Amino acid sequence: MNPLRIGHGYDLHRLEPGLPLVVCGERLEHDRGCAAHSDGDVVYHAVTDAILGALAQEDIGQLFPDDAPEWKDADSRLFVAEAVRRMHTAGYTLGNIDVTVILQRPKMSPHKAAMRDNLVALLQTDPGNVNLKAKTHEKVDSLGDNRSIACHVVVLLQTT
């Protein structure tokens, strides 16, 4: 068994008027939200894929298909919880995680502490193992035009 495993996760969703914007478990006030089958939480989706990728397992779309009625409007915490369960079953714990959210607006700064706390609890780790950053896209392409939101995640797993 490899003592260290690295995974990368990425997610992107269109932003559309009249939908809720949920980012890292926090509902943000905004005039638009994620167009998605579940709650569209890009951070939780990317975290799920990063952990599953590090384990060389199926991705989020295979485990939780977007055409399955049971996942319609689902809370994406369920997806992260399943990835964490699989991580522990495989004999790993989180070494550290680095999350980058790309969103033109609203500003993430007022919400980052709560978001980080949400990740710490879901990942069953220490706060020092979780980094969360937010970037704009400098008004370039759909991200910069506030028509989409994206997230990149890198995770390091280590044997228990």
From TrEMBL:
It catalyses: 4-CDP-2-C-methyl-D-erythritol 2-phosphate = 2-C-methyl-D-erythritol 2,4-cyclic diphosphate + CMP. 4-CDP-2-C-methyl-D-erythritol 2-phosphate binds at residues 11-13, 37-38, 59-61. Residues 4-157 form the 2-C-methyl-D-erythritol 2,4-cyclodiphosphate synthase domain. A divalent metal cation binds at residues 11, 13, 45. Pathway: Isoprenoid biosynthesis; isopentenyl diphosphate biosynthesis via DXP pathway; isopentenyl diphosphate from 1-deoxy-D-xylulose 5-phosphate: step 4/6. CDD domains: MECDP_synthase (cd00554). PANTHER family: 2-C-METHYL-D-ERYTHRITOL 2,4-CYCLODIPHOSPHATE SYNTHASE, CHLOROPLASTIC. This is 2-C-methyl-D-erythritol 2,4-cyclodiphosphate synthase. It comes from Mucisphaera calidilacus.
